[in-house]
Amino acid sequence: MSALVAVHDVDFAYPGAPVGRRVALANLRLTVESGEILGVIGPNSAGKTTIIRLLTKVVSPSRGEIVFDGVSLAGWSRWELARHVAVVPQDMPAALPFTVEQLVLMGRYPHAPRRFFETPADLAAARAAMAETGVSELARTPVQALSGGERQRVMLARALAQEPRVLILDEPTAHLDLRYQAECIGLLRRINRERGTTVILVSHDLNLAAEVCDRLLLLAAGRVVRVGPPSDVLDAGRLSAVYGCDVTVSDNALTGRPLVQVRWPEPVARGGETGNRA
Amino acid sequence: MERRRLVVVLAALTGVLALVVIAAIFLGSARLSPADVLAVLTGRADASRTESVVIWGVRLPRIAAAVLAGGALAVAGAGFQGLTRNPLAEPSVLGVSSGAALGVVVAQLMGPASGVTDALRLTIFGFAGALAAGVIVYFIAATGSGLPVQTLVLAGVIVGLFFAAAITVVTSLVDINRLGGIVHWLLGNVSAIPPRGLAVFAMLGTVGFWLIAGQARQLNVLALGEEAALQLGVNAERLKLRVFVGSALLTACVVAFAGPIGFVGLIVPHSVRMVVGPDHRLVVPATLLGGAIFLLVADTLARNVVAPAELSVGVLTSLCGAPFFIYLLRTRYRAGL
Amino acid sequence: MLARAVLLASIIVVATAPSAWPFTIADMGGRALTLPAPPQRIISLVPSVTELIFALGGQERLVGVTDFCDWPADAKRKPSVGGMISPSLETIVALRPDLVIATDSGNRQETVAQLDRLRIPVFMVHANRLAEMREVTARLGILTGRETSVAPLVDRFDARIRAVAAAVAAAPRPRVLYVLWPEPLIVPGRDAIVTELIGLAGGDSITANERNDYPRYSVEAAVAHAPEVIILARHGTGSGPIARDKWDRLVSLPAIKSGRVHAVDGNLMHRYGPRLADGVEQLARAIHPEIFR
Fold first, then answer.
1. Do chains A and C touch (3 or more CB pairs under 8 A)?
2. H helices then E strands: how many in chain A?
3. Residue B230 with chain A: CB contacts under 8 Å
4. For residue A37, what are the CA distances in angstroms to A190, A210, B120?
5. What integer is the mean pLDDT of C11-33?
6. Residues from A in contact with B at Cβ < 8 Å
7. Which of A170, A226, A277, C162 is surrounded by the fewest CB atoms within 10 Å?
8. pLDDT top residue among C12 and B87
9. Higher pLDDT, C177 or B90
């Protein structure tokens, strides 16, 4: 397994942000191995979404370099990169007038950007992707009529239709119920194992990340706190410091992976004493 | 597949357009009998006879102008709605039509020059005004990293208001004899354009249409949001620039040749989308034909309902526009779509 | 008078020419028009021109007029080609004119340009002075083949004007404000025929030196001149005097104090036809009621 993505000393700042919140990422150093499942975790505004944007050339680093498959990102054109890297975003715009099939077909754009119409091969790829995420019956349904979970599965289908080597998912299970969460994770594991697709998963769900990911990247305030296997990164003291609340880490009896639990705060009485209301 | 649907839709619209053109040739204030009209069209009538002059010199150029103007406005509207992802966007929001209008108004004031160069001068001034407005809008909206769509719309509205205010200043100061002509022009009229003018219009219109139609697939992807479009490989900045320039060019053409005609860029794309769906690869070519049909019908009415006097076509399109808007709001937007 | 001599001379000069067709005549826009034969089918896009053609007796050759050509009554029976601003090009062509008469103050350049393109001869006229009106009359006489009617028409006209001018010669000349339109206030400037008429009727227009023919004017400036007579123009038939109360409120004005506010028929003053003589007489009655009972 070789480093598919290498990030060398990258800084990034959003232009126009207020002073004090300007620097989104500093001294980012990271590699992503081909075929691994990497989880990106951290508090809000840690810079997780910014990493996705940097990896997909939506923004460029102000310092440093990102290398994909041996070639600097600056040398990749957008559509070439899109053939290799697909993103499943958190949500889609509210007023989207297209049907599910039309949306999934858009994932085929990078494979022939100059074509006006899609080919039968494109249609086959799209239909296969829809079958994998279980949205085939919804093919002719307007996207606006779908539930949150259905929408997320459609976006996953679109990303799969891109036939990427790297799949980046931004909170993929946020709107899914338990059954579809399980299906989604099952699907990710399957394509990772069968096709060797590299998966980068951004999630707030630490336990999901602990279970599914080979390695975790813990980010806070734009800096890397720790990179490594979940058992290494998910340390109670470290997590409490990063997240600012009381956290315990134990072992998951079923799988042996770390299990993160938050010690929920007790109600505080008027006088300021913590009381234990029986 | 989509390709077949496109062919079917275009064939149907072309058929309707042909019918409307034929009807328009037969209708007019000169009250020519159908036999006369047919004689002229088949070349059996003498070229110097009145009927020939009416058909070839007045009616057909005017029909051609209405077809070109209607198609151009509709495509500009569809392109701009796709660009801004806002179905209520209209080419006049670009600021370009007010700029072109100011150019023509200023040209009209610069003394009565007689001769063929006159129409050309008006058109050149119109384009100059449109170019000035477009450039100003672009430079207000463009940042180092690209062309944010919201700023583009705001800049367009403000620049448009500024130029409209300038036009108001001009009309308030102009002497009373010219006022009528200027007000008439500002209402938007289709009139017979000389063949050379028609050729220029057609050429520029083709460029504008190609700029937009060529990006139809990318406009679909842009609906996912700019970030998602970038991640799918669409060069969003180049797309926005192309569509902006295309819409501005088409709008400038129409205003320079026919004056500011409103609502076509709003009514036609919406109506077309209700029939063919949201895919720009169908919408853009269909609005070209749909816009031509719409404006040709409106102009044929405008020059026939109160013959021999003529209504301004802009009046008719505005009268259609408001009720259509209300209908849109009540059906589509009430349903929360 | 000198004017009459010049007019006579120009008529004599051009009266001999028409026997030689094709004939080149210069219009009042400076264009030279070459007509192969005397025009038999004339379209008038100018109400003043229509009035003059009827007055000259050339109406048989008039085949088309505008919606605004309402005098004399027979003019309304002629086929109409629409308004002055947007006449129907088709209707004009269908009437098969060999001459169209248009003005640069009232018709649009585009209309003239389109007629040029269709190779229909267009004769441009305008008249901001009485002298120009006489010139228009002379040229219309040539174009309609009624050259012999020009001199008598002009003579009758001049005689009436002379009579008015003589009657008011000795009277003091009050300051006159002529209101073409009250809101916004539009007045006759130095290029308006009305200004000349007011002078002939024995008054001094306070706006006589303003630029252009009908400029806007501020009420303040009008009040500052303290007009002694206010004349309000009525447009169209049957409508009462307009916006009198606006002026009645300005009680400090000499015109209001002495009640010298009058309404006149605008169509007599703003068109340059034979009815200008009626206009002068109406103005004189308004300005010097003590002389004309």
1. no
2. 9, 12
3. 56-58, 78
4. 12, 11, 66
5. 70
6. 15, 53, 56-58, 77-83, 85-87, 89, 92-93, 95-98, 102-103, 106-107, 109-110, 113, 115-118, 123, 144, 162
7. A277
8. B87
9. C177
Banded pLDDT at A198 (limits 50, 70, 90):
very high
Residues of chain B with Cβ-Cβ distance to C33 below 8 Å are: none
- Among the partner-chain residues B218, B230, B279, the one whose CB lies closest to the CB of A102 is B279
Say yes or no for a CB contact (<8 Å) between C109 and B180.
no
Tokens of C148: 């012999």
Query: In this complex, which of A93, A116, A117 lies closest to B224 when CB atoms are compared?
Result: A93
Structural domains of chain C sorted by starting position, each given as residue range(s) with its CATH number in brackets: 2-153 (3.40.50.1980), 171-287 (3.40.50.1980)
CB-CB under 8 Å, B225 with A78: no
Q: What percent of chain A has pLDDT over 90?
A: 54
Q: What is the pLDDT of residues A4-55, one digit of tens each?
A: 888 988 988 887 767 666 678 888 899 999 999 999 999 988 888 899 999 9
Interface ipTM: 0.89
Chain B residues whose CB is inside 8 A of the C85 CB are: 180-181, 184
Interface of B with C (CB under 8 A): 28-32, 50, 53-54, 57-59, 108, 112-116, 118-119, 172-173, 175-178, 180-181, 184, 189, 191-192, 194, 303, 307-310, 312
Ordered DSSP codes for C147-199: HHHHHHHHHHHHHHHHHHHHHHTTS---EEEEESBTTTTB---TT-HHHHHHH
**What average pLDDT score do residues A218-232 get?**
92
Instruction: Write the CATH number of the domain with boundaries B63-334.
Output: 1.10.3470.10
What is the sign, positive or negative, of the torsion defined by CA atoms of B73, B78, B81, B87? positive
pTM as predicted: 0.84
Mean of pLDDT over chain A: 88
Tens digit of each residue's pLDDT (9 = 90 or more) over B125-137: 888 898 899 889 9
Q: Of B280, B329, A276, B183, which is closest to residue C84 (Cα–Cα)?
A: B183
Backbone angles phi, psi at A216, to 5 degrees: -125, 145
Query: How high is the pLDDT of residue A202?
Result: 94
Q: Does C85 touch chain B if contact means CB atoms closer than 8 Å?
A: yes
Measure the CA–CA gap between C205 and C257, rounded to whole angstroms: 19
